[in-house]
Design goal:
single chain, 416 residues, 12-stranded mixed sheet
Length: 416
Amino acid sequence: MKVAILGYGTVASAVVKTLIDNQELIKARCDEEIIPVIALARTPKENALIPVVNDIELILNRNDIDVFVELMGGIEFPFEIISKILKRKKAVVTANKALLAYHRYELEKLAKNSAFGYEASVAGGIPIIKILKEGLSANNILCIKGILNGTSNYILSKMVEDGANFKEVLQKAQDLGYAEADPTFDIEGFDAAHKLLILANIAYGLRVKPEEILIEGISKVKQEDICFAKDFDYVIKHLGIARSKNEKVELRVHPAMISKDKMLAKVDGVMNAVSVDGDILGESLYYGAGAGGKATASAVVADLIDIARKEKNTAMFGYLNDTSYSLLVKDEIYTKYYLRLKVLDKIGVLSIITNLMSQLQISIDTFLQKPKKENDCSILFFITHETYEKNIQILIKELKKQNFIQDEIFMMRIED
């Protein structure tokens, strides 16, 4: 089986090296040689293990290529190229989560008569897509919770470990190569959101785009929040959550406080983990490296082995027909909330806040006040009982109108 690699960076070079170094092992497992024969790159690559060209037509026009591995990144150009390949009934493997977040439905239609592998698009080397499609196929999926971005998880872990602020840890992550020069895609939740949509499509057949779901990043988390969480036996993690109830599915990506005793709370550093709750199996956790050349290459090569075994997906994302599930409106999310307010330390402030909460039927579970020495201010911390997202958003809007509010209001959801 001859393979062309579209895009020759860190992951692609690891894929090629794996196919060459483990050639005999791979052949033994699929009874066929998988041979990388050519790669696409914008610029020449020194010490490349296979020929590298910069003209994609030279690759697309070859009739001897059996599988095209797309590792270019981006959305529209890869979509155009993969569409052409699938129309020719050729197999495709991709690690491109952004592409699938926006164009998975169109690609699913085109891939009906071709093999299409995308294990590497979510959680790197963790075979979570195969687990959902095959290992848990007898289960109705009640909930998926995942730490889906290693950069964000590393930053939050180091904020706890070092007692440092967000900017300091972000700089360290960039110095170590865990974060890009422009880290927005990772720290503001977009990368995790793309991955969550892929998982939700497999579990529920949902065909929604990132703009339709709740997405928040970690850049506003402060040491005050880290300390509060620790004092009340919580850990802050950046989570992607998909939860079904009454044929509605809530999809959200945001920092969340979770109990320190939860399995996900113990996942630190750049590692990823996905917790899946099935109606038959119950909760199971899948843990491993979520990024990097070797981890992603492991998933890409696994897809190539499946294709070499002539395994095709009868339903690319698990649903042959339209699903009965629909997306829950953001306002209808129902959970507990954490609020941090910096206010002027004067009589009547707390009364105004609690009255606003009462009017919106928001009940207080926990309250803590810490004095701030400068500017006669105090920091107020609240944990609410379960309430609707709409009520919390109205509360924040009303609080912003108050002249005693001295800084941006910070809110975080709590997942017990």
